[in-house]
Specification:
Elements lengths: L2 H27 L3 H9 L7 H26 L1 H17 L1
């Protein structure tokens, strides 16, 4: 696996872990993280320990999503080639 694919794989894993943690807050407060983020930036929510943690995790997710998009865009050709190779190999087995 190429270094770019490894980085993408790590980013995906990190994003999934963050999404799992964010889901706990979404379920607890019955609010999607994107809506929570918007309310925080509009100054409509008071600070609490949970909200500070939730905000930090959501910002981390956004940063990883930006990095994923940047890396994916810059490495598109090798990624497509590797994915096609992996799909062909999986089909053959």
């Amino acid at each position: 696996m190429s270094i770019s694919l490894q980085k993408l794989s790590h980013l995906i894993r990190d994003m999934q872990e963050l999404e799992n943690e964010l889901f706990k807050y979404e379920r607890k407060y019955r609010l999607r993280s994107a809506d929570f983020y918007r309310l925080v930036h509009q100054g409509k929510l008071e600070q609490s320990r949970d909200f500070i943690i939730w905000l930090g995790m959501y910002k981390a997710l956004l940063a990883r999503e930006r990095e994923y998009k940047r890396l994916f865009k810059s490495e598109l050709a090798p990624i497509v080639t590797a994915l096609n190779r992996e799909a062909s190999h999986a089909s053959a087995t």
